[in-house]
Known about the structure:
- 80% of the residues lie in helices and 5% in strands.
- It is mainly α.
- Strands 1-2 form a two-stranded antiparallel sheet.
- It is globular.
Amino acid sequence: xxxxxxxAINVFALFVVEYLVPGFTLTSLWAxxxxxxxxxxxxxxxxxxxxxxxxxxxxxxxxxxxxxINVALLWFTSKFVPGFMIDNFTxxxxxxxxxxxxxxxxxxxxxx
Length: 112
């Protein structure tokens, strides 16, 4: 049940980002569900490996590289999920920030 709730929160967060960020497009509910699952898989399996490899650069840049990895993975995911599009890297930066904040807020609201 928790997994379905987390998925629903992430799908809703993606729709909020689509509403707030121009250039961030979801064509359907199904595209949002697939995008939420794909982002979850990428963040679970690929992101830790890349962050471990980039750890020295992350330390030197005080975390900016970790943020850019997050942005790049979001943009990368949009290239492979049909119906989920991000126009450019600048849009991916803004979308990543908004998605992080909205997801954090919604998960906090759901846990209380």
